[in-house]
Every structure is written in C-alpha cells, then in structure tokens.
Design goal:
Length: about 450
C-alpha cells in the first residue's frame, strides 16, 4: 500500500466515524424532542372513556396480583376473561403501576414512550430508502409535528404502541434486503403488533410487505431463510393466541380472533361511517403538511421505479383502501397511514430544496398558509374574548405567527419556510399539550 492510499484510507475511516456520530446525535435529538412532546403534562386531562373502560381497569387488576400469577397471561375484567384487547399494553401499564402507583400519568406512560420511539424509527426507515439524509430529516420532522400522531400516542390506548411496532417491522424489513438476519426482527415486530393491536393490523402489515416485496425485491419472497426468520420472530407473539388451544379452550381462542377481526364487518359500538371518512380525517387534522402530500405522492408516482416511491405508494394506498373498506370507522385507525405520508412529504420538501432558482412555487401553498394564519388570528381574538384561559390564545397566536411567516417566506421563495413550519408547529404542539385542554372536541373518546 502506497502512502497516498494509506492517507485516503485513514481519511475514509474518519469520515465514516463522523457520519456514524452524526447519525447517533440525530437519532438521540429526535427521540428527546419526541419524548418531551409525548410525555409533557400526562396527568391532564383525566382518563378518557376509552382509557377507563377496559385498559386501565384490567391493568390495575393485574398490578394488584403477584408478578408470577397466571392472570398476567389471561387478564380479567370484573372476574371475567377480557377478550376485547390483546394483553401487551395491559402488562406494560400494570408494570408501570407497580413502579409509580395507579396514577393517570403512569397509566399513559408506557404507550407514550413507545410512541416517542416511533419518531427515530421513521428516521431509520427514511435512511434506508432515501439516498440523502436531508430527506430523512424532513420526513421525521413532519411526522414529529403531526397532531393525530401526538394526540393518540399520549393516550392509554394501544394504537400509539402499535404504530411503533409497525415502524419497527418496516425498518427491519428494509434492512433484511441487505441482511437476512433482520427478518427475525421483522417477525418480532409483527408478533408485538399482534399482542398490542391484534391480528387485524398484522394482516394490514403483511399485505403491505408482500405487495412491496413483490414489486421491489421479489427474491426475498422465495427465500426460505427469510421466511424462517419471520416465523421464529412471530412465534412468541402468537403464543398468547395459542394458550387457550393448549388448554383445550377452543371457543376462547375463536373469540379472541373474532374480537380482533370484528371491525371488518361490524360497526364496533356503533362507530360506522362512509368510505371517505378517513379522507375527511386527513383534511381536518393534518395541516399544514397536507399541502405537500399530493405533490409528494405525485413525485412518488413519477419515480415509481425507485424503492422509496414503491414503498410510499404501496403503504399509502393499501392502508387507506383497507381502512376505508372496514365497517368500523374510528379516527385512530388512520394512524398507520401517517408515516407513509410523512415520507412522501419529506421527499417533496427535499425536492423543493433542490429546485432551480427559476422554478416558481405553487401559489396555492402561499394562499393556504395565509388563510390558516388568518384563521389562527381569528381564533386568538375569539379565545381572548370568550375565555379567561390564556393557553388557547397562546397556541393560536403561535400558529398564526408560524403560518404567517411561512407564507411570507414562500412568497419570497425563501427555503427557510420549511424550518419555520417545523419549529413553529413543534412549539405550538408543546403549548397545547402543556395545557389542560389538549383533548379536542368531537372525537369518540
């Protein structure tokens, strides 16, 4: 080896170490930012109806028993076996109660921590499919500032943790394209989904996996080692479903499966709706990022020969089509679609960042942000006039400044509007979650 090769080799090692250090700092920063947003002021408001009815009661029942008692595997509610929810969240809440007491904050804490972990996991997924770190950062910041992800991730319901395991499975799947050992992690993630959200979300995930791999990496579908990894990973997660069969309680096993799949053909608790129900949910609660998603999906379609575009398209339309066809319509069922839309939005923002200076921005973006700013200003005036509480005016003022400044920057073709939107949305959400009024009106909770 000559001296020049040696110098370049040492330089390459330093670059790789620097890159790894940057990745770790970004992951830690995203997790800490998410942890603050998800865990601030968990004690308020009090437990909502969907938190009280089963999860908290079952978990408290478990926490009052010995850690080795069989009830940990067969949770009961008022002396009867509870089949409404898989037990993983019950176990985690019961363990939190053992550590910190039966408080509202401890009931919500396990789900919020796992929901916060979903933010760095999305960054990891984006790093697997996008060549540039910039795109992964934009996608993660969009995901971090999506109100539905934050709101439902803070509640003591299994949807936030199910979304975390969903992203864990997708990250391991993408890694398994280069290293088959990650198929084991994908199987473990799928097993955890079945223990937290039931087999229905697991079926959605399998549909996405098979459709994506059939389009992008079909060789994995014929790999015995890959399927073996999935099988070994999912076995522990399926053990809970098999326990009644091992005990000879076939009817209980059937009931567990039926409860998991019932939303497909029956409106649970009367919560039905039209097929376009979830499109309306996206329109209501996804601002301002909804402005960039149609362009992001169109960009994915134009680049559909690339792996990232295939994943975004399959993920978006498989989930949206599946939940739209379900008879039960609940707003948190749309959570699995938000990571895909964040990836699409991140790709669009990265594309905007690299646009030539001569290319103009769509005027609808500036107009929409201006209208949002006007609406937020109107909200500030209304809240000051109608209420004595200053949290709502502070939140609406923060939103007005964010949207207004972003609209001005857009009109001036200043790319800093991206960072203003991300930072302003984050601060606005912090202010909202720090108040005692972060429960939105009109949601079935």
């Amino acid at each position: 080896m000559d001296r020049q090769t040696f110098i370049w080799g040492r330089s390459g090692n330093r670059i790789r170490k620097t890159q790894r250090w940057v990745e770790r700092v970004l992951l830690l920063g995203l997790f800490l930012a998410a942890l603050l947003l998800f865990t601030i002021n968990l004690e308020s408001p009090p437990l909502l109806r969907w938190e009280k009815t089963t999860i908290d009661l079952v978990a408290r029942g478990i926490s009052q028993t010995s850690l080795g008692y069989w009830q940990w595997f067969d949770p009961t509610l008022k002396g009867e076996l509870n089949l409404e929810e898989p037990p993983l969240l019950h176990w985690l809440i019961a363990f939190a109660h053992h550590l910190g007491g039966n408080r509202t904050g401890m009931t919500r804490l396990p789900g919020t921590i796992l929901s916060a972990l979903s933010v760095p996991l999305l960054y990891g997924i984006a790093r697997e499919i996008f060549p540039a770190r910039q795109t992964a950062i934009f996608a993660s910041l969009i995901y971090l500032t999506l109100f539905p992800v934050i709101y439902y991730g803070r509640l003591a319901i299994s949807d936030g943790m199910g979304l975390c395991f969903f992203l864990l499975t997708m990250w391991c799947l993408l890694r398994s394209r280069r290293d088959l050992r990650y198929a084991l992690g994908a199987g473990i993630g799928l097993g955890l989904i079945c223990l937290s959200k039931g087999v229905l979300l697991g079926l959605f995930l399998l549909a996405i996996v098979i459709a994506f791999l059939a389009w992008d990496t079909p060789r994995l579908l014929t790999s015995g080692y890959w399927w073996l990894g999935w099988f070994l990973g999912i076995v522990p997660g399926l053990a809970w479903y098999c326990i009644p069969l091992l005990e000879g309680q076939t009817s209980i096993a059937t009931n567990i499966i039926n409860h998991s799949l019932k939303p497909l053909w029956f409106a649970v608790d009367g919560y039905g709706g039209h097929p376009w129900y979830y499109l309306i949910e996206l329109l209501k609660f996804s601002s301002p990022w909804l402005l960039f998603w149609p362009c992001g999906l169109w960009l994915a379609w134009q680049n559909r020969n690339w792996g990232w575009a295939k994943l975004v398209l399959v993920w978006t339309f498989v989930v949206l089509g599946a939940i739209s066809l379900m008879v039960t319509k609940l707003p948190w069922n749309a959570l699995p679609i938000y990571p895909a839309l964040a990836l699409a939005g991140g790709a669009q923002l990265a594309d905007i960042w690299n646009w030539p200076s001569s290319k103009s921005y769509p005027r609808i973006w500036t107009i929409s942000l201006s209208l949002m700013a006007v609406g937020a200003i109107s909200g500030t005036i209304f809240f000051i006039w109608q209420t004595a509480n200053y949290f709502f005016p502070a939140v609406s003022t923060s939103l007005a400044l964010t949207m207004g400044i972003s609209a001005i920057l857009l009109a001036r073709r200043n790319l800093q509007f991206i960072f203003v939107l991300c930072w302003g949305m984050y601060i606005s959400l912090i202010l909202l979650m720090a108040s005692s009024y972060w429960e939105p009106l009109g949601l079935p909770i």
